[in-house]
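--- STAGE predict ---
source: upstream dedup step, 1 unique chain passed
mode: sequence only
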Amino acid sequence: MRILHVLDHGLPLQSGYTFRTRAILHAQMARGWQVAAVTGARQGATALAEETVDGIDFFRTTPPRKLPAPLGELREIAALGSQIDTVATRFRPDVIHAHSPVLGGLAALGVARRRRLPLLYEIRAFWEDAAVGNGTGTEGSARYRATAALETWLCRRADAVAVICEGLRGDLIARGIAPAKIIVSPNGVDLGLFGTPPERDSGLATELGLGDEVIGFIGSFYDYEGLDDLIAAMPALVAARPRAQLLLVGGGPMEAALRAQAAASPVSTAIRFIGRVPHAEVERYYGLVDVLAYPRKHMRLTDLVTPLKPLEAMAQERIVAASDVGGHRELIRDGDTGTLFRADDPAAIAAALAGLLADRSEWPARRRRARAFVEAERNWSSNIARYEPVYQTLAHARQDGTWQPHSPLNA
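--- STAGE serialize ---
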């Protein structure tokens, strides 16, 4: 099986997007499949047009000259489509697997139809909702509606559609996409990277001035993550648990505002910002945290999309507490594998975290249950099998001549 992946961006850039991609491609390679990846213009200018990173062959698209929307997006689609076509000539894929956002899917669709290749389009989040969550778009705007319509148009024409969670699947079905056409390939964890619970690094803890009641967040600082609510919860938490501290590892658009909020807090000395750390160092910081907190705000993006970070924490046998948005409810069973608290409510956050710190008797059993859930249902080595029947069906139909664009597979 030869799979050509089409990506917005990839390694060596580091993000949840690139880590999911890495896990998928490594798991497919472990099955003996041949894989290659084409990255889009948003990878940025690179020194090499072709390079192997972490064992994966990447082919880079030269970014076109920037133009105002929508001309800039059209140029990106054209540039990526040209590179996909060039790579397809050499790689000879059985299936093209394009990953959201929609620009990459559109570029892949043009090549797939010209070359009579089947296309699987994978959605990790709706681009229009991600723009709202990142503060670069407005729900219900003309651009928002146009992007949603384009995504629906593409899903109707792809041969199969993969989504990362039930929330996205349900939304597509409501748009009229046939349920049989959609598979759920949930976020998973590479247990080779996150499989061993980290030991506490006493030296690092001493260096950072951390004690034995540490609440942590490790990830990107976007508004929708709700870190402002977590910081706002700290005075009440410290009042209930005087030794409680907050450790924030990462960075992003909200970092300056969050640092200013923390500096103005009456418990500012209990809040530590670390900044971004290399991926290889992340485990050291997981080992310092007693409870990983994920206070995502309630909005369409967080209700529909499941995050990756709580799964990584559960794999590391960390205690997890998260807001009760839809994406978290798909991953966490309240009181069983984690704790859920009311979203957008600092008082609820403080109460939930104080309760966890006050009674640790259930922590060992909860850690085991959370780890078992990841091993059984969110392990990439087994998750990857969800793609196989779709790939096989599409590839065999193409080989025996029964596959046609806009066939019943496309309904």
